[in-house]
Amino acid sequence: MTTRTVVQFSHLAIEEEARMQRALAMRSMMRAAGKWLRGRFHTTRAAELA
């Protein structure tokens, strides 16, 4: 392996890592948004029924 292929490989690994991190962040954001929406929906329903 030449130095150049090593550099290219590590760059690819870093890109892959960044992609994984973004996907993870998106998933947790979606989960938080879903929880928030559900919470809002339940409080509105409770207020309507009261």
How would you describe this protein?
The chain has one helix at 3-49. With 50 residues, the protein is an all-alpha fold. It is rod-shaped, with a radius of gyration of 22 Å.
Compose a concise summary of this entry.
The chain has one helix at 3-49. It has 50 residues and is mainly α.
State the separation between the terminal residues, measured CA to CA. Answer: 71 Å
Provide the gyration radius in Å.
Answer: 22 Å
**Which ranges are low-confidence, i.e. pLDDT below 50, for 5 or more consecutive residues?**
none
Overall geometric form? rod-shaped
- The helix count comes to 1
Q: Give the overall pLDDT as a whole number.
A: 90
Mind summarizing the main beta sheet? none
The class by helix and strand makeup works out as mainly alpha
The total of beta strands comes to 0
Proportion of strand residues: under 5%
Element layout with pairings:
Layout: H1 3-49
What keywords describe this structure?
50 residues; mainly alpha; 1 helix; 94% helix; rod-shaped
